[in-house]
Amino acid sequence: MSQNKIKFEAIQHNGTYYAEVIWADSTAQITQFCSPADCSMQFGLLAHEAGFVEAAHYHKAIERKIHNLTQMLVVQKGKLAIDFFAKDGTKFREVVLGVGDSILLVDGAHAVRVLEDMQCVSVKQGPFLGAANDKVEIKVNDS
Hints:
Strands 1, 2, 5, 6, 7 and 8 form a six-stranded antiparallel beta sheet that branches. A two-stranded antiparallel ribbon has the order 3-4. The chain has a single domain (8-134), classed as Sandwich (Jelly Rolls). It is globular and about 55 Å long. It contains one helix and eight strands, in the order E-E-E-E-E-E-E-E-H. By secondary structure, the chain is an all-beta fold.
């Protein structure tokens, strides 16, 4: 059995853990999660051989405190850029995602720019309380 070849990237800046990316050309022979164990959303690849059966189960209801609203995008069509900004509004990084790439937005400021008509699967923690309660726009430095 060959090893996992997950192309995983953690995006961090000045002590803030912004995002995780799993690039489309990643491969996994066995299930592997890439996120730190204390992350409020776990990001990785599931992989099993044909014939695998996971026993019927449910997940325990356990009260958890979550201080950030994470969002995962999986690109199905097109291309988009995610820009990342420091607390002072300075852009420090751009990540361009194409078909099959996925990103977990964990913390910090980001913007989404559509480069080619796109479609993504989007998953985020709920309940969504509306843009007025869940989003804070920042002033971006153009310098």
